[in-house]
């Protein structure tokens, strides 16, 4: 297989039907990192046809494969991920710009996801028995695979997001076509190779590298696709939903967030507490240069500790070591693309024009031995004196920008935290256990952390309220997205009804 044969259809690696290719750029220096196939509508149709045949045609063996065998394949994939951990982490680091250590963490999290869904399905019972109120009726609700699944993943966590979709789809007995972001497709290609090595039957898993239009658009509208799962931006997610509507296919969307990190004064009562809250606020905002759907990009801090907190936060943010993610000592890598760099610069400019105070960052750093010229680097930025009317506070920036808002009362803190179109995640910091539970209960976000930020568990659902999307990934509900419920009602002693006179 040549480096440009990155489309996988019906068990065969191939180039795009058109012969088109795309250069994948290294965000650290804007140089060509790899060349991949630029798939189009024809490639997409071929991949869907293969998945369709593998699901319900003459080769449709995967939905009828025993659950134990499906689970065993997922576990083999998990083992192969750990075998190739360093290679995959390095690929993810170079492609996305994140640090190598973050890449390794991603591989471990992907491994956990495959193992979790393998365990989940193999430990299930034979369906939910329903009491029909009669000894002569056996009634049970069973779950069957949806069918052909279109899995469209984002550029910031390509490997992780692919696993959150592929693992439950396969565990449930579906076939799929995965389309990674054209910006960061390389780790998904590696994952597909591992699936093949693990023994995935031809046609069950298919991969098309290419742009959202036409590949993602065609998948969303395709009449032979039964479900489309999309993770990405709000505008693109809206288009996916509109394209899927005429065929009334199932849709699952994770569309990001504008996530509050609420810090009460009592969480900073001691020097140790203060240090922890500041450190966690840095992690919340600047991991992967803020290119995280759950990034704590809105710091909402109690007024009495605001000045001290922001001053220390800005001091530490200014010392974050930027550079190529594979370099030793680097804490934060570049943004993923020139487009993302331009957007970040525009958000900072608009914030300053609307009255925000720049505490640190706000510009590209000078090149040095760890930051090559031409790379998409942007200094971690803290903006004080922000308010909800500002564009930088309302919109998902997806860059290393942290805005600061203040509150005086608990009610005001909750109101600020919920004053967003999104509702993916949020956090509350306090030593008051009662307050922690009250605020967590009132926050309209799919995940709420108390005295922490960012951890997730494969066994717990992930998803958001409002414009953060519909449906859930991970957990039992994440498996349910890839299933249809069927009620089977069996009359054990049939007899005439005598409804009609005859």
TrEMBL record:
Coiled-coil stretches noted in the UniProt entry, renumbered to this chain: none
Pathway assignment: Amine and polyamine biosynthesis; betaine biosynthesis via choline pathway; betaine from betaine aldehyde: step 1/1
Aldehyde dehydrogenase domain sequence ranges: 13-488
Keywords for the protein's UniProt record, in alphabetical order: NAD, Oxidoreductase
Record: active site: 254
InterPro entries: Ald_DH/histidinol_DH, Ald_DH_C, Ald_DH_CS_CYS, Ald_DH_CS_GLU, Ald_DH_N, Aldehyde_DH_dom
Statement: the UniProt record of this protein carries the keyword Oxidoreductase: yes
The organism's place on the tree of life at top rank: Bacteria
A GO term for molecular function: oxidoreductase activity, acting on the aldehyde or oxo group of donors, NAD or NADP as acceptor
Keyword Transcription belongs to the record: no
Protein family per UniProt: Belongs to the aldehyde dehydrogenase family.
Name by which UniProt lists this protein: Aldehyde dehydrogenase family protein
Organism expressing this protein natively: Streptomyces telluris
